[in-house]
Predict the structure.
Amino acid sequence: MKLVKNGLLCLIMASLLLLNNGLVAQSDSIRMSRKVLFTLVYNDVPSNSGVPLVGMINRARGDYQGLQLGFLNFNDLSFKGLQLGFMGVVKGNVNGLQLAFLNVGIKNVRGAQLGFVNNTRSDLNGAEVGFVNLIGERGNGLQIGFLNATKKSLNGAQIGFLNVSDSNVRGAQIGFLNLIKGTVSGFQLGFVNLVDSVSEGVALGFLSYVKRGGYRAIDVSSNELYPVNIGFKIGTTKLYSIIQTSYSGEFTDKFAIGTGVGSLFKINQNWSFSPEAVFSSSLNKQPTISTSLRFSLRYSLSKHLQLAGGLSAVQYTKANDKSATPWFKITDVRLDDDNRIVFGAGVSLIYNFTEL
């Protein structure tokens, strides 16, 4: 026991001596234009030092090249190399890799930031991968995380649950909610897409709202399977999403809901062509399921109102609802007792909230 006490006492004395030497060296370094300071806890080097810094706290007071490995890593100016620890902060440019829980680059970052929170105050040329990724100016590269945000334009991709760009995006946004306050040249793929305008691209999702140059319409239609359908169409004329409810008084399962996609191609001032694909399901445990392809010609009755009609092909499974049979058809093909392909037609009246 006495031996252990003596050992601990020696260890404490050695630590105090090491700390004292560090403080003396730090004091001397101030008088001698900041010479290199090394301890097991704190490392401090002047500008243009390439000595690896391994300790709890590492600080480079100027430009630094090499390795910083510690709990906290700081650079007063630019950094080139690898930072590894809990937090890494560079007040100048970063050229290399920051790997930590929190990574901050005050100026430009050329390389990668990997961590829980990554923040580039200026431009990014490379990648940010983490739970939260923030770019203060322009992004050129990739952001992957739960939340990705770019203050100005983005040239690359954002992949996450929530993707935000305050300016134009040339590339892609892929996530649950995508928001662009400028123009997208590329595509948005998500459950909800919000964008100011689309140029040379598409916004594809369950709900895609394009503020300028978008397409929004209400469609009341009748087809071979359901005599009454009400659909809402939103997106762009190149590619829009469809949300639809259907009703048939002859079916046991009278109501169905559906979703799909479509496009609108203008032929001339009055005529346009619209292919659509819609998946529908009735509302019970063993639903009647249908997948339809429809090809319609539309005629413009006014700036906002169109009359449409065309041919269609529908594959449907009626499961336990034997009453689910077409009320109108041209012909059909029986696959088995519950599955058929029906060739038919449909008509619809469409009100466009946006001028075509």
The two ends are 91 Å apart (CA to CA). The chain is about 10% helix and 60% strand. Residues 1-33 have pLDDT under 50 and may be disordered. The longest strand covers residues 169-198.
